[in-house]
Amino acid sequence: MKILLLNGTIVGTKTKSLLDEIQTYISKLHKEYDTTLIDLKDFDMQFVDGRPVDQYNEDMQKLIHEMEHADAYVIATPIFQGSIPGTLKNLLDAISPLAMRYKPVSIVANGGTLQHHLVIESQLKPILDYFRCLVTPNYVYTHTNHFSADGELIDEDVHHRLEEMTKVFDQYIQMSHRI
Description:
Blueprint: E1 2-7, H1 14-27, E2 34-39, H2 58-69, E3 72-78, H3 86-94, E4 104-111, H4 118-130, E5 134-135, E6 140-143, H5 156-176
Parallel strand pairs: 1-2, 1-3, 3-4, 4-5, 4-6
Helix pairs in contact: 1-5
GO molecular function: oxidoreductase activity
Protein name: NAD(P)H-dependent oxidoreductase
EC number: 1.-.-.-
């Protein structure tokens, strides 16, 4: 079972900190889970313009391949200007809608205001619904105050919510095997 942990931004460290925590919780669930963390800042991304996959650079081809061959996903995103980052949307635009069909997805996000959690509901979930993903109902939204000045997650409630989300994610993975 290949689980892709996707950091959907090229700036900041908070979403990667959240994925690191989730990776720890996943490792406690099942040994057969193979997690891969993809941090978009480590790739030379190209603007998706509809050309065939083999005409993109090596990094874009690798990103597309990793996305299309994963069995489940945890997507982490910051909220910028009331929206998901263009880098995340650009990558999702490159993926075949069939590639993520009926695959489990959990979402974690971070923003500067408490109201930005609505971006998950109004933007990211509709995109994932288009892909027909099995989106877990309990996403985790964090705020700047949940982190130390160094970007370390310091809020115990958030730790508990991440652990609970990971357990639900595991149930969705088990359920997806029956589809």
